[in-house]
Design goal:
The protein is an alpha/beta fold. It folds into two domains: 33-174, Rossmann fold, CATH 3.40.50.10860; 189-342, NAD(P)-binding Rossmann-like Domain (Rossmann fold, 3-Layer(aba) Sandwich), CATH 3.40.50. The chain has 13 helices and 13 strands. The model has no long low-confidence stretch (mean pLDDT 96). The structure holds nicotinamide-adenine-dinucleotide (NAD).
Length: 417
């Protein structure tokens, strides 16, 4: 495989699953090809009066189980293939975690860190206006992903209700909104906490005492920072954390709350007191029991898979492991909690937000956290039991369960229009 991409990883994982499940060629081809791919060019004018041209993509991979669900990635190098691969992953993730959604994803080719908040809002609103006919509670419901956050989701909701001339939207058009606009308590933390619930379940299975475990985390954004805090609260020692600019290491353990405050005040992980500097990818190779890749795709590759020292890899990021690296990890007996299970807490709580808004209900943090923790643990057990029964890895088992459910939905719908 020449180049590692999310689409290649997603296609490979589906291909393996299709073989194990003995899917016929027509069904396999149907699951490979997204239902709809849209490319939209935005031409907004920034606050300085200059016009810009921005490519954006929306892919709805499959809606057999329900409306497409998946976040908006804003990054200068996101491609339509990345968005396609990510939307495919969302189809399996929603199926596996058991919510009535299909898989979708969006991409906005722009570096959000290079512009003001006002100009970012201009892009988000331009995207919403242009993409409005592709977004809706029964079609595609976006959410935050890398480079976007709850503030952006608030602008999307406002833009849609504004153009409809209403105060609220008719149903849930977007999740991950600010709580004051109908967002749900606990959504921001849901992915990172879900990562930790599945990691604790894996520790229990493998007989690892979390209070003696050392943890390394790549990525200190939404997923990585919440996971680092939650796992430290569970008693583990976080020894290394890195983001795109590098990171910090301390064998004796890092005070994550203080590190978070340091990042808030200085804008960077660098120069945190008492820690040595490490590189963005060096964090993957430090001596630890649990490794949480929570940054971006294709980080664990053929080049470093043999150097990983962890017993458990909890995939907070989407597609952080390439297929070749996955084979190496399998041979080495490293226990991988696959992305479609490990980071599914976010989409599960998005589903709670969707039902809350649809039913004009309100849920408490206690209710959200209880349902999240129960769902993550029960799906972990389901995947683990299937893997043990069929002698598969957790990824293989998770894929086979997820793909089977999507196939069942397609067959149950029938093939006539
Ligand atoms: P984010 O933008 O909040 O944070 C990303 C973090 O990763 C930042 O700290 C960034 O510096 C770091 N990073 C980026 N490239 C890196 C590199 N090459 N090396 C080291 N660090 C790097 O994004 P997020 O929402 O935390 O998402 C992280 C991952 O989790 C993505 O793969 C995303 O698709 C996945 N994910 C996110 C959610 C969610 O609810 N936010 C849900 C499921 C999966």
């Amino acid at each position: 495989m020449a180049e590692n991409t999310i689409l290649k990883t997603a296609t490979y994982n589906l291909e393996r699953s299709a073989l194990r499940l003995q899917l016929d060629d027509a069904m396999h081809a149907r699951l490979c090809a997204p239902k709809e791919k849209i490319e939209i060019t935005l031409n907004p004018e920034f606050s300085n009066g200059k016009g810009v041209h921005i490519k954006t993509f929306i892919v709805r991979h499959c809606d057999a189980l329900g409306p497409a669900k998946g976040g908006i990635r804003m990054s200068p190098d996101v491609t339509i293939d990345d968005v396609t691969g990510l939307s495919m992953e969302m189809t399996w993730k929603t199926s596996l975690i058991g919510v009535p959604f299909g898989g979708g994803k969006s991409g906005i080719c722009f570096d959000a860190s290079s512009i003001s908040a006002q100009d970012k809002e201009i892009i988000i609103r331009a995207f919403t206006r242009s993409a409005k006919r592709h977004i809706g509670p029964e079609i595609y419901v976006p959410a935050p992903d890398m480079g976007t956050n709850e503030k952006d989701m608030g602008h999307i909701r406002d833009c849609i209700s504004y153009s409809d001339g209403t105060s609220i939207t008719r149903g849930c058009f977007v999740t991950g909104k600010p709580i004051v606009l109908g967002g749900i308590v606990g959504r921001r933390e849901a992915t990172g906490k879900g990562v930790v619930y599945t990691t604790l379940a894996a520790c229990e299975k493998l007989g690892i005492d979390i209070k003696k475990a050392r943890v390394a985390v790549q990525g200190f954004g939404n997923v990585g920072s919440v996971a680092a805090i939650a796992i430290a609260q569970a008693g583990a020692k976080v020894v290394a954390v890195a983001d795109v600019h590098g990171g910090v290491y301390n064998e004796a353990g890092i005070d994550i709350k203080k590190l978070e405050a340091h990042v808030k005040s200085t804008g960077s992980l660098n120069n945190f007191a008492g820690c040595k500097a490490i590189s963005s990818d060096g964090v993957l190779e430090v001596a630890c029991d649990i490794l949480i890749p929570a940054a971006t795709q294709s980080q664990i590759t053929i080049d470093n898979a043999n150097k990983i020292q962890a017993t458990i890899i909890a995939e907070g990021a989407n597609a952080p492991t390439t297929p070749e690296a996955d084979e190496i990890l399998k041979k080495r007996g490293i226990f991988v909690i696959p992305d479609i299970l490990c980071n599914a807490g976010g989409v599960f709580v998005s589903y709670l937000e969707y039902t809350q808004e649809t039913q004009r209900e309100q849920m408490t943090l206690e209710q959200v956290e209880r349902r999240l923790s129960e769902r993550m643990k029960s799906r972990f057990s389901e995947v683990e039991a299937y893997a043990a029964n069929k002698k598969l890895t957790m990824r293989e088992a998770a894929m086979d369960i997820a793909v089977s459910r999507v196939v069942d939905a397609i067959v149950a719908r029938g093939f006539l229009p």
